[in-house]
């Protein structure tokens, strides 16, 4: 019997557009793999959305292609647990922890993994002065796709101002971290098995939303041209991070490497529990490098889906 798969996508957050592309690509590939698929543009009444699928039968498995708050922060995962529907990617706890960058950093730090320092700062206290020695980064505690990220590079630059930080992204709190110079690296994991190291080279500026999702916004080098020690360390750290945070399915660990300081210049920035599945996305590229087609990847994700009670 053909398995019924509902692909969750869209939603109402800032990453809606990315989610629609990810979900559409996953749905197309799952249909090619022989699954019965319904695309669900998620509303706040998820139970009704799912009950309406497959002529009222509902799905047997949920493929979660949502991104950002309400999609990968544990909230949708909790609802699916209550409904008893197996779903792809990480469970409630890992999703919530990874979405809150500072909590994820604390867990990784306790596991002995190198993460940047920094602190959370109430947005209302920003008055244009520098909250950390420059250079530093100001970003939302719980959002993705580089929305709201500000890099302050010199003393001559103004520090953050409360009225310039969008409340819908920051919700009253900002994460301020030292800026790690050097190269942008990432490792995707299937379960806790690392695939490869990719170096991301933005066409201009840093790896922001445009660099991530616009054609030609960045160049991806896979496998990254790195010393063997750095490659091995990245792969090992990504696996350790996935285990420490309890990630399931496909995840991606992002690094900065200050190549002037060898292995001591390597830091984990964050772990993404639902990396993108767009034409320019990194996890599918690494799976392809390891000989796993996009169809094979999404099939594996459906077969791996479960509740975590």
Automatic annotation (TrEMBL):
Pfam families attached to this UniProt entry: Dala_Dala_lig_C, Dala_Dala_lig_N
E.C. number: 6.3.2.4
GO cellular component term, pick one: cytoplasm
Residues the entry annotates as binding Mg(2+) 1: 254, 270
Record-level Gene Ontology MF annotations: ATP binding; D-alanine-D-alanine ligase activity; metal ion binding
Broad class of where this protein is predominantly found: cytoplasm
Cellular location(s): Cytoplasm
Keywords: ATP-binding, Cell shape, Cell wall biogenesis/degradation, Cytoplasm, Ligase, Magnesium, Manganese, Metal-binding, Nucleotide-binding, Peptidoglycan synthesis
Domain ATP-grasp: 105-303
SUPFAM superfamilies: Glutathione synthetase ATP-binding domain-like, PreATP-grasp domain
Catalytic residue positions: 15, 145, 281
Gene Ontology biological-process entries: cell wall organization; peptidoglycan biosynthetic process; regulation of cell shape
The record's free-text note on cofactor binding: Binds 2 magnesium or manganese ions per subunit.
Pathway: Cell wall biogenesis; peptidoglycan biosynthesis
Catalysed reaction, written as an equation: 2 D-alanine + ATP = D-alanyl-D-alanine + ADP + phosphate + H(+)
UniProt key word Manganese: yes
Family: Belongs to the D-alanine--D-alanine ligase family.
Function: Cell wall formation.
Protein name (Swiss-Prot/TrEMBL): D-alanine--D-alanine ligase
